């Protein structure tokens, strides 16, 4: 699964953390977005949260491309992608029970995220996976491609999670060779090899 929406509540919190940790929003806006009121699926659309989701995000993040925050070209028109990602209806149904069911049925699940995607950031995916309380088989480690670190991965019982370095929302578009290698390892049911110099 590429950049999947797994759990609405962790997605709200993960987005706020991602925006803040990547310097897109101020400390004050981060505090507002991650407050109990504004990070709950039941209350984040209340009037009190509106300034954080509408005004502050747009003013502070500017016209950054929400699907790839590393892209340096600026858009002539102000992009509302980041702000709109909060105004889209949050999925109140979590996919975590479905993942649990698939895992129990014996399917090997691989989830990957581009680390420059702020729409469904890897911080939200990592947080959602942690809610499953899975036994970890391999701790977070780097994987390389063509002599460079390209991916970080962590392996759990039944689920492998990988982030692809420098990629936005559509990983194969940004890094086709790395995406293909990840897919080949998935098909072969082989872990990504650890990076060594």
Task: Produce the secondary structure layout.
Layout: H1 8-21, H2 27-33, H3 50-61, H4 81-87, H5 96-104, E1 109-114, H6 122-130, E2 136-145, E3 148-156, E4 159-164, H7 171-174, H8 176-187
Parallel strand pairs: 1-4
Antiparallel strand pairs: 2-3, 3-4
Q: Give the low-confidence spans.
A: none
Largest sheet: 4 strands, mixed
Looking at the structure, what is the overall shape? globular
* Percent of residues in helices: 25-40%
Distance, first to last CA: 29 Å
SSE order, as H and E?
HHHHHEHEEEHH
* Total E-strand runs: 4
What does this structure look like?
This protein has 197 residues and is α+β, with helices and mostly antiparallel strands. Helix content is 38%, strand content 16%. It is built from eight helices and four strands; from the N terminus they run αααααβαβββαα. It has a four-stranded mixed sheet, sandwiched between helices. Helix 1 packs across helix 6 (122-130) and helix 3 packs antiparallel against helix 4. The radius of gyration is 17 Å and the shape is globular. The two termini are 29 Å apart.
